[in-house]
Amino acid sequence: MEQPHEIAAEAPRVWDRPVVVVPVLAILSLVGGQLPSFSTSANLYTIGTGGVLVWLGLSHRVPRRPAPERLRSGAIWWVLPVVVFGVFEGATFVMAAGDDFPTFSRLADPLLEDSLVRSAAWFAWLAAFWGLVRR
User: Fold this and answer.
1) Phi, psi at residue 52, to the nearest 5°?
2) CA distance 111 to 64
3) How far apart are CA 98 and CA 106, in angstroms?
4) Per-residue pLDDT at 8
5) What whole-number distance in Å separates Cα of residue 36 and Cα of residue 112?
6) What is the CB-side half-sphere exposure of residue 2 using CA atoms within 13 A?
7) DSSP line for the chain
8) Cα angle at 68 between 62 and 73, to 5 degrees?
9) Rounded to whole angstroms, what are the CA distances from 97 to 89, 93, 105?
10) Could you tell me which of 8, 47, 25 has the C-alpha nearest to residue 134?
11) What is the pLDDT of residue 48?
12) Model pTM?
């Protein structure tokens, strides 16, 4: 007679708890926000933190959330603006349109002069990347 096989729920790891993840991301974003925009140190910090998150995503150290089997039909309305934005951003960058048709990064530069706004942008970037790592 076969016994029902129960799968033991794995205890959440330290980096699986928002109480740990949010402060770590906040500290990383505060450090990144203090670095001057587009400096060598900021670029190295971005590559380093992004590299660690990519490494965590490719390794099996972080518990995964189940990915949706199929995107719903409404997802195209989210993908379409992203693709249009990417095409315009890439075209204006390649053509070096300058002030006539500036890229988004050029428009965001005055906002990103403030270190608090840069830290908030860093936090949003890290949180989005962490969500991708968990998939």
Assistant:
1) -65, -40
2) 35
3) 9
4) 43
5) 9
6) 3
7) -PPP-PPPPPPPPGGGSHHHHHHHHHHHHHHHHHSPTT-HHHHHHHHHHHHHHHHHHHSS-SPPPPPPSS--GGGHHHHHHHHHHHHHHHHHHHHT-TTSS--HHHHHTTGGGSHHHHHHHHHHHHHHHHHHHT-
8) 150
9) 10, 7, 13
10) 25
11) 94
12) 0.66
Residue position matching structure tokens 């403030």: 114
**Tens-level pLDDT at each residue, the chain (135 residues):** 454 444 444 555 665 677 788 899 999 999 999 998 778 998 899 999 989 988 887 887 776 777 667 777 777 788 888 898 889 888 887 887 666 777 777 778 788 888 899 999 999 999 988 888 877
d(CA 101, CA 107): 10
Residue of 51, 74, 53, 50 lying closest to 62 (CA atoms): 53
User: Tokens in use for 103?
Assistant: 């890229």
Q: What are the phi and psi torsion angles at 13 (to 5°)?
A: -80, 170
Amino acid identity, position 69: E
